Amino acid sequence: xxxxxxxxxxxxxxxxxxxxxxxxxxxxxxxxxxxxxxxxxxxxxxxxxxxxxxxxxxxxxxxxxxxxxxxxxxxxxxxxxxxxxxxxxxxxxxxxxxxxxxxxxxxxxxxxxxxxxxxxxxxxxxxxxxxxxxxxxxxxxxxxxxxx
Length: 148
Known about the structure:
By secondary structure, this protein is an alpha+beta fold. It contains three helices and seven strands; from the N terminus they run E-E-E-E-H-E-E-E-H-H. The protein has one domain: Nucleoside Triphosphate Pyrophosphohydrolase. A hairpin with a 5-residue loop joins strand 5 and strand 6. It is globular.
C-alpha cells in the first residue's frame, strides 16, 4: 500500500538552562494535543535542506539538528547549542497521520522566551516540578532521560 511509506518527521528539543527544562503549553486551537504541555519542536520540511548546498554529493548532514534550531527559534525565540540525541518515537496523530519524532536535548545559548501564536505559556521546571503539568504522554520520560 503506497501510504504505508508516508509519514511526518518531527524534531523536538528539550532545552536545558541552569538545570531546568523549558516546557511550553499548546494553544487550545491546536489539532494535536490542544492545551497540553510539551517541549518546542515541529515537522521537518523539504525546504529545511533542499535549497541548501549538499555537504557531500547529494547528501545533507545535520538536517534534524538544523530543524531543531529553527523550531526552537520560531516557537520560543531561543538559540541553542550542544545538541544531543535522546530518543526516537513513532505514533499515530489524532488526524490519522503517522509521525516519527526525533527527540534531542540542547543547552540554552541565548535569547529570552517569546512564544509563537501556537503556544500560550511557558515554564522553566525541574524534573520534580514537571510532574505538576499536564504533559503530553512521553514528555516526562524524555525529561528523565535527559536528567540522567
